[in-house]
Amino acid sequence: MILSVNGIEFRYGSRPILENIGFTVQRGEFLSILGNNGAGKSTLLKTLNKILSPKKGSILLDGQEVSKLSRLAIALKMAYVAQNYESNRQTVFDAVLLGRKPYIKWEATASDLALVQGVLAKTGLEEFALRYLDELSGGELQKVVIARALAQEPEVLLLDEPTSNLDLRNQMEVLKTIQTAAKEKNIAVIAVMHDLNLALRFSDKFMLLQNTKVFVAGGPEVMTAENITQSYGVSVSVERVRNQIVVIPM
Amino acid sequence: MVRDETLPDGEITHYLRYTWKKKIIMLGLMMMTAMLALYAISAGSAELSPWQVLLTLLGQTEGQSKIIIWSIRLPRVLAAMVAGIGLAVAGAVMQTILRNPLASPSTLGIAQGAAFGAALAIIGLGAGSTPSTGGGALLINSPYLVTISAFVAAMLTTMIILFLAQYKGVSPESMVLAGVALGSLFSAATMLLQYFTNDVNVAAVVFWTFGDIGRASWGELGIMFCVVFGSLLFFLFNRWNYNALDSGAETAKGLGVNVESTRQWGMFFASLITATVVSFLGIMAFIGLVAPHLVKRLIGGDNRFLIPASGVMGALLLLAADTLARRIIAPVVLPVGAVTSFLGAPLFLYLLVRGSKLR
Ligand SMILES: Nc1ncnc2c1ncn2[C@@H]1O[C@H](COP(=O)(O)OP(=O)(O)OP(=O)(O)O)[C@@H](O)[C@H]1O
Ligand SMILES: [Mg+2]
C-alpha cells in the first residue's frame, strides 16, 4: 500500500470542501478521481502532498505520515502536476530537468541529463528541447509539466486534469505513456479526470466525489449509468463497444 | 536549428552546447569588465598607462603612481564593481522570488528607507554640518552616523515587508505593493524633514542621495565585499530553489521547495546587500532592475547562470557609469546614479525591442 488516506477533512473558512475522504492506492495502480466542477478534486490532490493541510485525518505515504515529512522527503516519493501551471523563460530541457531538483545536490549529473533526454523522447518533446516555455502551445506546455513529473521518478504521481489541453492523439499517447510508466516502474497514479471515457480506458480504480464526499469508489463495476447519472446530474448510458466501455450522455 | 540525428544523445549535446554559449557570454562580460577596470584605474587627472597600472598592482613600482592607484583609484573601481555585483544580484533574486519583473532594490522601498534614515541622521541627529566652502563632501561631518542610520532604516523597511509576509500570509504581489507603499511613505517623510530644515542640511541630504562611489574607503569596501559575496554564495546554493519558484509556488512545493522560507531568506539577503551598498555609497538607481533584465535577454532566466551573470553585468554597468561620470566633463564628477539611468535605460530599451538571439 503506497498511499493510504483516512478520514480527511478540509475547509476553506467555515465552508467544508472535503469530508471524511478515505481510499487506498497500490503501487502500479491508476486511480481516477471524478466529479463535477467544484467537487473538491483539486483540493484533495493538494492535501495529499501537503500543499494544503487537512484539518483531520491521516495520509500515509509508504507507511509514513505525510504531515510529518519534509517537503523534500515528500518530493522524493511523490510528484504533483497542478491543474494550472505557468509558463516562463526557461527552456523545455531546463523545465524537465527541474524534475530532478529533489535529487540534485549542487549540480545536475550526467545521469540526470540522460534521464531528461529519455523522458523527452517518451513524451515526444525532443524537437522542443531548447524552446522557451512561453513559446509553446497550451498542449505542448502541458506535456512539459507532465514530463517534469515523470523525470522526478516518483512512486506516486498526482495529476490534476493531465489531458485538459491535449488533442485526441496526444490524450491517448500521454495517458499511454503514464500508464506504461505506472506498470513498468510500479508507480501509483492518481489523476483527476473529466473525460469519463478516457478514465474508463486507462484507470484501474475510480472515485466519484460529490459535494465534499466520496459518492462511490471501486473498480470499473462502479461506473454504472445510475451512479454517473446521479453524480453528474446528467442522464447517461454506459455501453460496451468493441470491448471498450463507453459513456454516452443521453 | 540544424539537428544532428546521428548522435544517440542529441538533446544532451544541444543542451550542453546551449549552456556553453551562456558560459562564454559570461566570460566575455567578465573580460570586458576587467578591461574597463584597467582603463578606469589608469584614467584620471594624473594619466597612467595600463602597463604602469599593471606593474603597480603587481608591486613593481614606487612613488606617486603607487599612492594614486592604491589609495584612490583602486578602491573606487573595486567599490563600483562590488556594489554593482551586489545591487544586480539582489535585483535578480528579488525578481525571481517575488515573480515580478519590476522588483528591485529601489522599487521595494529599501533605497527610500535608506534615504530617510540618512536624512534623519543629517537633519534630526545633527550629523549635518555648518556651511563650508570645501565642496559637497564636507557637508556631512559624521558619516558613520549617517551610514548606520540609513542602514537601520533600510533594514527596517525590509523587516516590515517580511513581517507582513510571515504573519499575515501576504502574497508576493502584495509584498511588492507594500514595498512601493513604504517607499513613498519614506520619500514623503524625507521631504517633510527637508521642508523644515535649513539649506545646508537639505543640500547635505540631496548630496547623500546622489550615489557616489568615491565614498568607499578600504574598510568600507571590506564590509561591502563580505556582505555581497556571503549573500551571493547563499543565492548560488539556492539557485535550483529559485528555478523551481520561477515555475510557480505550487509546482515548487511539489518539487520539495520550502517556498515561504526560501522567499524570506532570499528577500532578507537581497535587502541586506542593498541596505549595505546604499548606506555606504548612496542611491544608484536602475542597476538592480536593468542588469538582470539585460542578462535575461542575453542568456535566459535560468538562475544557475542568471545570478552570476547579473553580478558581472552589474559590475560592468556601474563601473562604466562611474568612469563616465568621472571622465565626461572632468574634473567635474557627475552623480553616478543619474549616469546609471542614462546609460542603462537606452541599452535596455534597445534589447527589449531587439529580443534575444541565443540558441
Ligand atoms: N483558495 C480558495 N478559497 C476559498 N475557496 C476555494 C479556494 N480554492 C477552491 N475553493 C473552493 O473549493 C471548492 C473545491 O475546489 P476544487 O478546486 O477542489 O474543485 P475541483 O473539484 O477541482 O473543480 P474543477 O473540476 O473545476 O477543477 C470549490 O467550490 C472552490 O470554489
Ligand atoms: Mg480542479
Amount of beta strand of chain A? 25-35%
CATH superfamily of chain A: P-loop containing nucleotide triphosphate hydrolases
> How many domains of chain B, as an integer?
1
- Total helices of chain A: the number is 8
Terminal residue distance of chain B:
8 Å
Which CATH top level class of chain B fits? Mainly Alpha
Structure write-up:
- The complex is a heterodimer of chains A (about 250) and B (about 350).
- Chain A is of the alpha/beta class and about 250 residues long.
- Helices cover about 30% and strands about 30% of the residues of chain A.
- Chain A has helices at about 40-50, 70-75, 90-95, 110-120, 140-150, 170-185, 195-200, 225-230, and strands at about 5-10, 15-25, 30-35, 55-60, 65, 80, 155-160, 190, 205-210, 215-220, 235-240, 245-250.
- In chain A, strands 6-7-8-3-9-10 form a six-stranded mixed sheet, sandwiched between helices. Chain A has a four-stranded antiparallel sheet with strand order 2-1-4-5, covered by helices on one side.
- The longest helix of chain A has 18 residues, at about 170-185.
- By secondary structure, chain B is mainly alpha-helical.
- Chain B has a single domain (about 10-355), classed as Orthogonal Bundle (ABC transporter involved in vitamin B12 uptake, BtuC), CATH 1.10.3470.
- Chain B has helices at about 10-40, 50-55, 65-95, 110-125, 145-170, 170-195, 200-210, 220-235, 240-245, 250-255, 260-280, 285-300, 305-325, 335-355.
- The N and C termini of chain B lie close together (about 10 Å).
- The interface of A and B includes residues 85, 114 and 132 of A.
Write a concise keyword list for the protein shown above.
heterodimer, A: 250 residues, Rossmann fold, 6-stranded mixed β-sheet, 8 helices, B: 359 residues, mainly alpha, ABC transporter involved in vitamin B12 uptake, BtuC, 74% helix, 0% strand, globular, disordered N terminus, binds adenosine-5'-triphosphate
